Amino acid sequence: MAAAPKQFEFTVTGTGQFPVDMLRYDSCWPATESDSTRLGGGPVMEPRSVTVRGLRRPTVGRWKSFGWSVSL
Predict the structure, then answer these.
(1) Cα–Cα distance for residue pair 36/45, rounded to 1 Å
(2) Are 68 and 14 spatial neighbours (Cβ–Cβ below 8 Å)?
(3) Is 27 left (phi over 0), alpha (psi -120 to 50) or beta?
(4) Is residue 20 a part of any domain in this protein?
């Protein structure tokens, strides 16, 4: 039986439109239903944090290019 793949959990923090395409790019998803609601439908001007889980380490520089910081 194969072991379950390792998951990485990290938090992204930023303002404005959430870069939804980064979820696909980094093969990740919101960690909880509450995190899903923080993605927002449009730009949110106050800082917010979203915890995500993924199958690999985040591409920190790419998140930064969208104005979002990453905490591991």
Answers:
(1) 17
(2) yes
(3) left
(4) yes
Kind of pairing between the strands at 8-16 and 69-71? antiparallel
pLDDT digits over 41-65, tens only?
777 788 999 999 999 999 999 999 9
User: What does the pLDDT read at residue 5?
Assistant: 77
Nearest by Cα to 67 from 13, 11, 8, 6: 13
**For the whole model, what pTM was predicted?**
0.89
Q: Is residue 31 part of a domain?
A: yes
Q: Which residues of 10-40 are buried (b: 16+ CB within 10 A; e: fewer)?
A: bbbebeeebbeebbeebebebbeeebeeebe
Amino acid at residue number 6: K
Residue 3 within a domain: no
Mean local confidence (pLDDT), 20-43: 93
Number of domains the chain is built from: 1
